[in-house]
Amino acid sequence: MTSATPTAAPLLELKGVSKCFARHSDWVDRAARVLEGVLATETIHAVDGVDLMILEREVVGLVGESGCGKSTLGRIAAGLLSPSAGMRLWRGAQLVETSQGVARAQQLKMQMIFQDPHASLNPRQRVVDIVGEAPVVHKMVKRRNQVEYVALQLNRVGLDPALMRRFPHQFSGGQRARIGIARALAVKPEFLVCDESVAALDVSIRAQVLNLFMDLRSALNLTYLFISHDLGVVRHVSDRVVVMYLGRIVESGPTDEIFAAPNHPYTQALLKEIGSVEPKKRRYVPIRGEIPSPLSPPSGCHFHPRCVHAMPRCREAAPRLAEIAPGRWSACYLNQAA
Amino acid sequence: MSETLLAIDGLCTHFSTREGVVRAVQDLSLRVGSGEVVGLVGESGSGKSMTAYSIMGLVDPPGRVIAGRISFEGRDLCALSAEEMRQLRGNRIAMVFQDPMMTLNPVMRIDAQMIEAIRAHDKISRGSARERARDALARVGIASPDERLRAYPHEFSGGMRQRVAIAIALLNRPSLIIADEPTTALDVTVQGQILFEMQKLSRETGAALIWITHDLSVIAGLADRICVMYAGRIVEEGTTADVLEAPRHPYTRGLFDSLPGNAPPRQRLRQLSGMTPSPLELPSGCAFRLRCKSADHACEQDPPMRQGGGPGQRARCFHPLLAVSTSDELQ
User: Fold this and answer.
1) How many whole angstroms separate alpha carbon A110 and alpha carbon A156?
2) Would you kindly state where each structural domain of chain A is located, as residue ranges?
3) Looking at the partner chain, which of B220, B243, B263 has a beta carbon nearest the beta carbon of A276?
4) Which of residues 274-313 of B touch A (CB under 8 A)?
5) Quick one: fold of A10-91+98-271?
6) How far is B216 from chain A (nearest CA, A)?
7) Nearest neighbour of B215 by CB, restricted to A236, A274, A275
8) How confident is the model at residue B217 (pLDDT cuts 50, 70, 90)?
9) Residues in B touching A244 (Cβ below 8 Å)
10) Which residues of A233-253 are buried (b: 16+ CB within 10 A; e: fewer)?
């Protein structure tokens, strides 16, 4: 398997993408606000001005702790959420969220595979419909050919087509993950967003599914955005890694370089936690504190309260993501000082 | 190994269901020395949690411990009455669950829960119980424990709740703590913090620890000894170094190879084929034989635990892997 060449064209680009969620206020909140005279609504900046470029045939790993906005970014990339601000470009052309026909055709090229195959499969649909419904609706396959088509898809992900009349609950966790993959691949996508797709699986099943992802990638020329909190998995599958912290990208670069020499203090701390099977009595050196609430993120660099190198400057303004070496980006003032 | 604290011999925990008998734990023997950290590793359904529940006397019908001896501090736990068992739980043996909300009562403040747990086993005043609760919270790394004592569980984050659950487990200075995947639901950074605290605490208090996990990499830096479970049985045990560096059982080897860190990046992982068999339809003889490359006719018989490899290393296999060939494979 070869990694994406540097000359590959960008497949998907996100430019200055942000996503805010405002808490729905009910009448109790409104009453309280009137009584207290406070008018501000609670807004969460789940994703805050993110630029991300994914090249053709590239596997980009997106890592971060829960609550850092990586799933939201993944959903924006897959087109399931529209950003509050910013642009999405598909092969260099802006994706229009409103125009029906073109947008739908483009949308089919991007599919998502979810974390919990139990929650993302309709329990009252048979596998033949779960996998075959979308290609029929989008007129990729005639209805009378649906069964053959689904059989083909199931074979490709290593499931016995004889099981297509079954319901999701009749499958094991690993098999359900494969159904989710077959469903995503049935509409012939070019780009897959995998959101913690192997997190819920046992170690041995996880290895099988990861192998399947890698086989499919070379067989179908797929591009992946691979979201995971498991650094071992991300290191294994990705060409490039993007690290997020509280809605912002703090570092990105080629996988091997980042794991060899992480630049941002957060990445450094995160990589210390990577599990190793060295049977040595390891001294765990914990990173201080926990990820702050996105409702009231710290000023300046979001990481400064947990950072060992924090300077007064870090509290005032957020450092920009700057190129520190060819292809490597990091958002930290330490790079400017040097 | 130091003095034996817990000795399990031939433990069988079965569930009689309408579909048949599920042998959740089958003929399991295990020794834990005082102050020792034992890692119990296995995939879902391998019986590792059921082993813990059997020790704690928490197996609910239709499940039942049908055979075996569990001897703890010289007493046979299977022979104790419900009341005697209750006296022991949370006092001499404590358990930390995967989901801290299983331990914490959502409608009680932390201090009330902790004081209740202390006074259930110890005749001391509320004031001194409160002091002990405060110290326990401080010991697991919770900042400003005095204020946090007055908080409700929902006011804590996931990692903090797990710390509180660990603090509660420590309250009565147990000699054995059973931790059932306590870091699985947590972020990697928080998992690192909890592992750090547990390592420190087991060293400070001298409590023995049984750490249940499906992730070999979690246990690698923590355990003195590892037991690998498959389909209700221990298939391999030995010191952490021996089991990880020179596994004898093909299943242990397969688990090890399935970890992404052990293969060159962006290459296929050496995967275990097939799935864990249904506990209702276990193959005869070695339960692993249908997924095993070295299986043959002999494996249709039950393989015994056999000595081999490092000191105290044993594997339930007729064709154990040789230390030499495994180190070659690693290259």
Assistant:
1) 19
2) 10-91+98-271
3) B220
4) 275-276
5) Rossmann fold (3.40.50)
6) 7
7) A275
8) confident
9) none
10) bbbbbbbbbbbbbbbbbbbbb
Backbone phi, psi, residue A16, to 5°:
55, 40
Beta strands B208-213 and B176-180 are: parallel
Of the partner residues B240, B257, B261, the one whose CB lies closest to the CB of residue A275: B261
Nearest CA in chain A to B223: A281
pLDDT band of A205, cuts 50, 70, 90? confident
pLDDT band at B109 (very low <50, low <70, confident <90, very high): very high
The pTM of this model reads 0.83
Q: What is the ipTM of this complex?
A: 0.78
* Minimum distance, in Å, between the CA of residue B261 and any CA atom of chain A: 6
- CB B189 to CB A275 under 8 A? no
Look up residue B99 and give its two tokens. 């989901």
Residue by residue, what is the 3-state secondary structure of chain A? Answer: CCCCCCCCCEEEEEEEEEEEEECCCCHHHHHHHHHHCCCCCCEEEEEEEEEEEEECCCEEEEECCCCCCHHHHHHHHHCCCCCCEEEEEECCEECCCCCHHHHHHHHHCEEEECCCCCCCCCCCCCHHHHHHHHHHHCCCCCHHHHHHHHHHHHHHCCCCHHHCCCCHHHCCHHHHHHHHHHHHHCCCCCEEEEECCCCCCCHHHHHHHHHHHHHHHHHHCCEEEEECCCHHHHHHHCCEEEEEECCEEEEEEEHHHHHHCCCCHHHHHHHHCCCCCCCCCCCCCCCCCCCCCCCCCCCCCCCHHHCCCCCHHHHHCCCCCEEEECCEEECCCHHHHC
Our CA-based measurement puts residue A282 at a distance from the nearest CA of chain B, in whole angstroms, of 5
Place of tokens 């630029």: A51
φ/ψ region of B39 (left if φ > 0, alpha if ψ in -120 to 50, else beta) reads beta
